[in-house]
Structures are given as structure tokens and as C-alpha cells.
Amino acid sequence: MTSWLELEGAANARDVGGLPTADGKRTAARRLLRSDNLQDLTPADIKLLVGDLGLSTVVDLRSSREVELEGPGPLRAVDSVRHMHFSMHAEAGENTDAAAEALFARRESTLARFPENPMTALYLGYLEDRPDNVVAALRAIRDAPGAALVHCAAGKDRTGVIVALALTVAGVARDEVVADYAASGERIDAILARLKASSTYAADLSKRPTPDQTPRGETMTLFLDQVDRRYGGVATWLTDQGFTAAEAEELRAKLVA
Fold first, then answer.
1. Which residues contact 246 (CB under 8 A, 6 or more apart)?
2. Residue 122: domain span
3. In what order do the strands lie in the sheet with 14-15?
4. What's the pTM value of the predicted model, to 2 decimals?
5. What is the pLDDT of residues 121-171, one digit of tens each?
6. Which of 185, 174, 187 is nearest to 227 (CA)?
7. Total of domains in the chain
8. Cα Rg for the chain, rounded, in angstroms?
9. What is the CATH number of the domain that holds 213?
10. I want to staple 144 with a disulfide (CB 3.0 to 4.6 A). Which of 83, 91, 148, 257 is the partner?
11. All residues at 6 or more sequence positions from 91 whose CB lies less than 8 Å from its CB, including other chains
12. Segments of 143-207 assigned E as strands
């Protein structure tokens, strides 16, 4: 069952605790949270996140341009919360990736990575374009003294990949990783409504040839399968990027009850 966080200022927030691992354990609650944009959080939301859930670290996966356009969110005023920014894209002047096809139109090489599924191709691009920041985001989750919250704009693509990698390291079964990714589809209408109300994202969304942005399990399944085939699996890819076996065990210990 998805552990939704009912926030007034976010549509796609949840705790990924409670997921079963291959060795019979479960991921711990209040260790890893995920969300869409945090710009509209209310005082009640902040009390829930910081006071009740022990939020200590925000891992922001938006591009530098998105961060600049949006400005500081309300959590920036909370001294006990550390903010860390790791863009998943090679910074090249694009505003956002809220509308994936708009990004693809500017980057034909993205589709060439995996023509069968454009979103899977986009996700593989995160590993190829910004392996440094992918690893840094996982280290930030591992090192958070309290709960870490990973977010981007919609909380489904960039956030979905980083959370999927973290859960895989933690030993969560693949079908559970995929189900967590696909759960964002339950909130897609509310997610898009928030983005369309933002001057940062509305223009990109209007350029899409199709209104469907629902995350589908097959996209994450294909992504993880491709990581297996191309790199020998998540663990091997991380090792090749300098994320050691000891670090993986520390991340697993952070996330597993």
C-alpha cells in the first residue's frame, strides 16, 4: 500500500517505507520521502515534514534554470533542513523537463539511446549525462541524519529514477520498485494541475503533442532491464562510478528497518 503524505502544497508526496526486501525485511518509514515541487508547502506541511517525519535533507533534482525561475521555497527558511541540488541533465540552457517531448525535440540523441520507449531513453540519459549527480544524490540520502526527501518538478521521472536506484540498492524486489514508480500515476491529474498553474512549467506543458504523462510500470521495468544489459546491473553501474560496496551497504542500512 502506498504511504501517501497528504500535503496541502504538493500532489505527489509519499514515504517509501514499508516495502519488502528480498531478505524478508522492509524499508523503514521516515527514512526516504519523495515528492513533486515543494514551492507551495504550507506551514502545516512543513510541520508534518520536519516536526513529525524528521525531515533533515532535501535532495533537489531540478535543473539550475528551474531552481532560478522558481526561487527559494518555504523550506529554505527552516534552518534544520539541508538543501542539496543535483541536476539530472547536462546543463545546456533548457528551462525544464516537465514536458518530456519538448526535451526530446532538442535532443535527438536521447531517443537514439532506446527508441522503443522515449521515457526509458530519457532515464538512461540521466545515467549517461550526469552520473556524478546520480551518485551524489544517493550519497545525500545515505548521509541524511533524518529523513531525506527527493523531489523534482512532478516527482515522477527524475525522482522516480533516483528512488528506484536507492530501493534497488536496499534490496527491494523489482516488482515493488516498479510499483512505487507507477504509483505516481494515481496523482497525475493533480500533478499536472500544479505544473500548469506555474509560470515555470506551463509553457512547456502546452507544447506537448499528447496530454498523457502517466508513468507506466513498463517504463521502469525497461529502464532497469537496460541497466542490467548495458552495465551489468545497478550495483555494477554504481561501482563503476565510484560508489563502493561499503557505501552501498551504508545506504542499505539507512533505508532498511
1. none
2. 3-255
3. 3-4, 14-15, 32-35, 147-151, 55-60, 82-85
4. 0.93
5. 999 999 999 999 999 999 999 999 999 999 999 999 999 999 999 999 999
6. 174
7. 1
8. 17
9. 3.90.190.10
10. 148
11. 63, 64, 65
12. 147-151
